[in-house]
């Protein structure tokens, strides 16, 4: 591939980014962290005041996202955050850094405009603007965590759920969830199960769920289950499709889980079964829908387009059985015929 040179012909003012930042920090930072840092560089010498809310509005982020980005760069020793006696952020100092930053030396900050916004310190929880930041745990802290009584069992459970040996970063995530978010052993167990059931085995996703639960004041497995049911899109959609506005009972939740995870149906197939159920009966709707979906599973339905074939096969079988029944009735007409109430039979079947 040919090489090229970049020429500058723009007549504009500039924001200078240090080569050390590009060489040493750019590849590891996420989009939000990079944008927030560049925003600070842009406003070093501007006359107006900066604020967390202004940055959040500019990027369409939450104030928590902005604060997490700032705390990330503070841990990287690229900037310093200053707080007043009320724990309000009152200043940001961008640091001048050498090519390689030393872990033991913190560069002196250069003066930048103060930021006036009520935010929180790293690893502090307040009801209005919380920010949970995972600390840079040392090897000694990891060793102490692994020496605890329940840690070995917790790591074994995590490896069983995730299907892999935990890395040092994975163990740091468990330490963060345990010590900073104050999750109990049982709650961490359920957290791992919850994420794996949704096909998520990455600890970055697991941490996000854990932080969300912590901010919602979830402290028990029961509270987490209620939260999961409340905000599970699939569960809510199925409940609504069956004409139910309440939280699903454990039995109803078991049906929904079976349809998605055991039968392996997509939402459009399940909703088609729900629609037919609502048109057919007002009672025992979960049982009725389960009968439909079970028959589709046995027929080999995988997509909504397959349902038409299943319907045609069912109609053909029903017509054949009707013909046989009619022939038998004419041949043995001298015997007393049974008058079955199929609606009653169906209701009896569904009530069992």
Architecture overview:
The chain is mostly helical. The protein folds into 3 domains: 92 residues, Arc Repressor Mutant, subunit A; 93 residues, Arc Repressor Mutant, subunit A, CATH 1.10.10; 68 residues, no CATH class. The chain has 16 helices and 3 strands. β1 and β2 form a beta hairpin. α2 crosses α4 and α3 crosses α4. The longest helix is centred in the last third of the chain and has 25 residues. It is elongated and about 85 Å long. About 11% of the residues have low confidence.
Task: Give keywords.
single chain, 352 residues, mainly alpha, Arc Repressor Mutant, subunit A, 3-stranded antiparallel β-sheet, 55% helix, elongated
Quick overview of this protein structure:
The protein is mostly helical and 352 residues long. 55% of the residues lie in helices and 4% in strands. The chain has three domains: 19-110, Orthogonal Bundle (Arc Repressor Mutant, subunit A); 139-231, Arc Repressor Mutant, subunit A, CATH 1.10.10; 242-309, no CATH class.
Strand content bin: under 5%
Mean pLDDT: 76
CATH-defined topology of the largest domain: Arc Repressor Mutant, subunit A
Largest sheet: 3 strands, antiparallel
- Please work out how many helical segments DSSP would assign: 16
**Domains (count):** 3
What's the CATH C level of the largest domain?
Answer: Mainly Alpha
Order of helices and strands: HHHHEEEHHHHHHHHHHHH
Strand order of the largest sheet: 1-2-3
**Helix and strand composition category:** mainly alpha
The shape, in one word, is: elongated
Distance between the termini: 71 Å
Low-confidence stretches: 98-130, 334-340
- CATH architecture verdict of the largest domain: Orthogonal Bundle
- State the helical fraction: 55-70%
Rg over alpha carbons: 30 Å
């Amino acid at each position: 591939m040919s090489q090229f040179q970049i020429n500058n012909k723009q007549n504009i003012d500039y924001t200078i980014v240090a080569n050390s930042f590009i060489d040493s920090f750019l590849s590891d930072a996420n989009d939000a962290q990079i944008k927030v840092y560049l925003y600070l560089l842009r406003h070093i010498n501007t006359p107006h005041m900066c604020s967390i809310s202004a940055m959040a509005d500019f990027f369409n982020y939450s104030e928590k996202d902005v604060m997490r980005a700032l705390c990330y760069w503070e841990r990287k020793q690229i900037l310093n955050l200053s707080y007043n006696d009320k724990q309000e952020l009152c200043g940001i100092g961008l640091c001048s850094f050498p090519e390689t930053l030393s872990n033991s030396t913190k560069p002196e900050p250069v003066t930048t405009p103060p930021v006036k916004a009520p935010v929180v310190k790293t690893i502090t929880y307040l009801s209005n603007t919380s920010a949970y930041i995972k600390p840079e745990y040392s090897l000694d802290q990891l060793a102490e965590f692994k020496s605890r009584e329940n840690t070995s069992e917790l790591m074994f459970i995590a490896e069983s759920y995730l299907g892999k040996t935990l890395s040092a970063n994975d163990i740091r995530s468990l330490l963060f969830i345990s010590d900073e978010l104050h999750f109990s052993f049982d709650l961490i167990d359920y957290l791992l199960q919850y994420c794996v059931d949704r096909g998520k085995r990455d600890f970055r996703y697991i941490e996000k769920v854990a932080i969300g639960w912590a901010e919602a004041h979830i402290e028990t497995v029961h509270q987490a289950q209620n939260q999961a049911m409340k905000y599970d899109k699939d569960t809510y959609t199925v409940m609504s499709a069956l004409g139910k506005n309440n939280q699903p009972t454990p039995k109803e939740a078991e049906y929904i889980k079976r349809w998605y995870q055991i039968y392996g149906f997509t939402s459009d197939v399940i909703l088609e079964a729900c629609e037919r159920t609502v048109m057919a009966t007002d009672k025992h709707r979960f049982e009725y829908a389960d009968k439909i979906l079970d028959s589709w599973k046995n027929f080999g339905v995988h997509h909504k387009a397959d349902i038409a074939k299943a319907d045609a096969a069912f109609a053909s079988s029903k017509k054949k059985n009707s013909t046989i029944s009619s022939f038998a009735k004419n041949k043995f007409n001298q015997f007393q015929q049974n008058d079955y109430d199929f609606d009653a039979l169906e209701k009896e079947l569904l009530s069992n």
